[in-house]
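HUMAN: Now follow token order:
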Amino acid sequence: MKRSFRLRLALLLVLLAGSGLVGFSVVSWKLIYDAKVSRLDASLENQLRRSVRLPDGDRGTPERTHHLGEEERWQFYESMLSRELGTGLVALQVTQGNSVLYQSANWTADLDASALFRLLPEPTDLPETVPPNQDRRMRGDRPLTDRLSNFPFATRYKTSGAWRIGAIRFPQSEVAIAVSLQSIDQEMVVIRNIFLISIPVVLILVAVGAWTLSGQALRPIHQLTDAIQHVSAKGLDQRLSSQAIDVEFVELIQVFNQMLERLERSFKQASRFSADAAHELKTPLTILQGELDRTLQQAEAGSEMQQRLGSLFDEAHRLSEIVRKLLLLSLADAGQMSLYQAEVDLSAILVEMVDDLELLAPELTVQTEIADGLRVWGDRDLLIQVLQNLLSNTIKYNLPTGWLRIDAKQQSTMVLVTFSNASKELSAADRHRIFDRFHRGDPAHTRKVDGTGLGLSLAREIARAHGGDLTLDPDAPNQTSFTLSLAIAPHVTEVSS
């Protein structure tokens, strides 16, 4: 399975951003929660300091509570706590020794403050209170509430939720105040939901941004890939510009351009050698054929010498055809194949070729479906060579007493000619290399068939030089098909439109 570097890069950025956001959210949520609890602890501490003066009716308590009894004062204090602390869920417990002086109705055993009282100093260790009728400023003493410290706090959990408890001890009694954390929990749920909604949204934005940025970062790679895909024998002269390219990719572009330069130089040398060799061989082969033909005519008819000269003449002719095809292929590779283009009546050429089939392959069943008026734009001689090569292959590589079929039709702006014949199934390797030069397939099947393995390669190069193509059709049972595609003649387009 292929992996996408761009996708992996984007996912990695999203993972890093997601980890950072989740970590930030968890830490922020904890800090916010601790800050809210600390603020509540500060409020509880202030209320615990006020509770020191409440039993004696000190100046810190409201005057309207002086006529109330002790229990009524604590009830009033509890109601005041709800207003001061901003919540209705407040519980109060006041003890003296082992006896309970006052306890709220919603105070339960779950709100056990004994552990907090153990953290407080013993009554004998507490500073003495100052008599109400003596001015502290005259004695230079601080108020008792200022001299008390070490207010312990703890969190207890009831079935209804968490509670925060603070405690204080003074000579007369011990006071514990519990406040429900329900309001803080509700606020934290809202903050948590905000994080749960905002984090996926931010991650989606990060993913989109990471995908876009990674695409821009990999743009030079895409340009290099496109350039490589277009590299062919005719495109080795192209070069990629290293301007406006990030410095990380400049060296890669330079190496690619140097590789193209070496390939272009090597290909030109090989192409020039092939063309020069074919051109140089053409003249002596022509002379050899002429001399053999003249000697053949002078030899005694039916003699062994004439038969040997005839075989040599055929081989010289075959060698001459190979040289001619090699010359055409070298010109095609260099993009210098000369085309004498004109309007070509492809339908008429195909009909003439079909008429000759009765003499070429009388044992084969021939089926044709050739549309009338198929005209293309190209070199007539080269196109006839392509059609003859395809027809020759359908005959040579056919099954005994087999069949062949020729279909020709116009499709959009192209003319499609398909040659099909009965044959054995081609192997995957043969299908892949069927257009390779000098490839003739399985020797067991082609040993007795004349050929050089250049015909299909040359036919495809001629088709591509005309702006068309020659392709091997998808595999079908017991048959092989080739389709030649050529552009229709210009004036045919005007008539059809």
Q: What stands out?
A: The two ends are 47 Å apart (CA to CA).
